[in-house]
Amino acid sequence: MVKLTVNDLLECQNIIQYRHTNLVCLFSALMVDNHFCMVMEYVANGSLRSKLKAKDENLDYSVRLQICRGIAEGINYLHTAFMTYLVHRDIKSDNILLTEDYTPKICDFGLAKILSARIDHGNSAIFTETICGTEPYLPPESFQGIVSRRFDVYSYGVVLLEIISGKPATFSDLEGCRFLANYFLHCYNHDKSTFPIAETASWPNNIKKKLMKLAKNCLKRNYRDRPQMDKVTTKLAKINLMQDNSPDSKLTRFFSRI
């Protein structure tokens, strides 16, 4: 439990109204002995990070793609469900819980920030004096105190790389590149094939390339150049169609009918 203010409690009570398949359900928020407490849904299968690093977990590409889509849908809901924007500010694999059928659920809304009513064609941003979040997932503008919906888009791009590679956000195989996102951008921009790909996922080459391009767009340095999450979900739906039309998927559907 973390000490927070009454304003934090009021903001959390606003968050309770958010309900979506890909969000952990927040039942109530209360102050107990000057400590801020949140009562949440229990999700049985642990975090995405724990599954990605477990040696006995062989998540194939179809499950990973399902997880990618679910996380994006959850973030998009936070960004678009109401007349105000809710920015999570701590999207990371440790904050993605999985159900028994691997449905992802975003949790930990302790840093979530509700932005003012929709203005400026969705490009609104606020400035804060404190830097919040987890460093490997933080977009460049966060160090200037800028918070917008595209803050979460950058963090999602990092999670996407974790799902593709199976590596943690702190991974790097190059001196001078501290984190996975920096290492990926170095490899992508210099056309190097050394970025790790999870072998157990058995990624089809075309799907892998599309996801890496999407991650690249989510990680653009200027936050205004990143896509909004509704564009990301649309792109993922198209990538999913590539999976549905693959020979392996067609064979699976055929044998399921006999």
UniProtKB/TrEMBL annotation:
Extract the InterPro entries matched here: Kinase-like_dom_sf (IPR011009), Prot_kinase_dom (IPR000719), RBK1/2/STUNTED (IPR046958), Ser/Thr_kinase_AS (IPR008271)
Q: Which Gene3D superfamilies match?
A: Phosphorylase Kinase, domain 1, Transferase(Phosphotransferase) domain 1
Stored SMART domains: S_TKc
GO MF term set: ATP binding; protein kinase activity
Q: Where is the Protein kinase domain?
A: 1-239
Annotated PANTHER family: OS08G0249100 PROTEIN, PROTEIN KINASE SUPERFAMILY PROTEIN
In Swiss-Prot or TrEMBL terms, this protein is called Protein kinase domain-containing protein
